[in-house]
From TrEMBL:
Protein name: Holin
This protein's record includes keyword Transmembrane helix: yes
Record-annotated membrane-spanning stretches: 29-46
Keywords: Membrane, Transmembrane, Transmembrane helix
Species for this entry: Pueribacillus theae
Highest rank taxon of the organism: Bacteria
Length: 79
Protein backbone atom coordinates (compact mmCIF):
# COMPACT_ATOMS: atom_id res chain seq x y z
CA UNK A 1 0.00 0.00 0.00
CA UNK A 2 1.29 3.42 -0.95
CA UNK A 3 1.25 5.94 1.89
CA UNK A 4 1.49 9.63 1.14
CA UNK A 5 2.11 11.90 4.09
CA UNK A 6 1.48 15.65 4.22
CA UNK A 7 4.97 17.06 3.87
CA UNK A 8 5.87 14.73 1.03
CA UNK A 9 2.65 15.50 -0.80
CA UNK A 10 3.24 19.25 -0.51
CA UNK A 11 6.80 18.89 -1.79
CA UNK A 12 5.61 16.72 -4.66
CA UNK A 13 2.91 19.27 -5.57
CA UNK A 14 5.48 22.06 -5.60
CA UNK A 15 7.88 20.03 -7.74
CA UNK A 16 5.22 19.04 -10.27
CA UNK A 17 3.94 22.60 -10.59
CA UNK A 18 7.51 23.81 -11.14
CA UNK A 19 7.95 21.22 -13.89
CA UNK A 20 4.70 22.36 -15.50
CA UNK A 21 5.89 25.98 -15.40
CA UNK A 22 9.22 25.02 -17.00
CA UNK A 23 7.36 23.17 -19.76
CA UNK A 24 5.30 26.26 -20.56
CA UNK A 25 2.28 26.46 -18.27
CA UNK A 26 1.47 30.10 -17.40
CA UNK A 27 2.46 31.07 -13.86
CA UNK A 28 -0.94 32.57 -13.15
CA UNK A 29 -2.45 29.05 -13.26
CA UNK A 30 0.02 27.66 -10.71
CA UNK A 31 -2.36 27.81 -7.71
CA UNK A 32 -5.15 26.02 -9.59
CA UNK A 33 -2.69 23.46 -10.91
CA UNK A 34 -1.33 22.85 -7.39
CA UNK A 35 -4.85 22.17 -6.10
CA UNK A 36 -5.60 19.78 -8.97
CA UNK A 37 -2.31 17.95 -8.49
CA UNK A 38 -2.97 17.76 -4.75
CA UNK A 39 -6.39 16.20 -5.27
CA UNK A 40 -4.99 13.71 -7.79
CA UNK A 41 -2.24 12.73 -5.33
CA UNK A 42 -4.75 12.38 -2.51
CA UNK A 43 -7.08 10.23 -4.58
CA UNK A 44 -4.17 8.08 -5.79
CA UNK A 45 -2.95 7.55 -2.24
CA UNK A 46 -6.26 7.11 -0.38
CA UNK A 47 -8.75 6.17 -3.09
CA UNK A 48 -11.77 8.08 -4.30
CA UNK A 49 -12.97 8.85 -0.80
CA UNK A 50 -13.70 12.04 1.06
CA UNK A 51 -10.44 11.54 2.94
CA UNK A 52 -8.46 11.35 -0.30
CA UNK A 53 -10.05 14.49 -1.72
CA UNK A 54 -9.74 16.52 1.50
CA UNK A 55 -6.14 15.50 2.14
CA UNK A 56 -5.31 16.25 -1.49
CA UNK A 57 -6.90 19.68 -1.24
CA UNK A 58 -4.93 20.31 1.95
CA UNK A 59 -1.66 19.36 0.23
CA UNK A 60 -2.47 21.55 -2.79
CA UNK A 61 -3.50 24.48 -0.62
CA UNK A 62 -0.30 24.15 1.40
CA UNK A 63 1.70 24.23 -1.82
CA UNK A 64 -0.16 27.38 -2.86
CA UNK A 65 0.67 28.93 0.52
CA UNK A 66 4.34 28.21 -0.04
CA UNK A 67 4.13 30.02 -3.40
CA UNK A 68 2.38 33.10 -2.04
CA UNK A 69 4.56 33.26 1.06
CA UNK A 70 7.75 33.08 -0.98
CA UNK A 71 6.42 35.60 -3.47
CA UNK A 72 5.53 38.08 -0.73
CA UNK A 73 8.96 37.79 0.90
CA UNK A 74 10.78 38.24 -2.42
CA UNK A 75 8.63 41.22 -3.40
CA UNK A 76 9.15 42.92 -0.01
CA UNK A 77 12.93 42.52 -0.26
CA UNK A 78 13.02 44.07 -3.74
CA UNK A 79 11.21 47.26 -2.67
Amino acid sequence: MFELYGVGAVALCIALVEVAKKVGSPSRFSPILALIIGVVLGVCAYGMTAQGVVLGLAAGASAVGVYSGTKNVVLKEEE
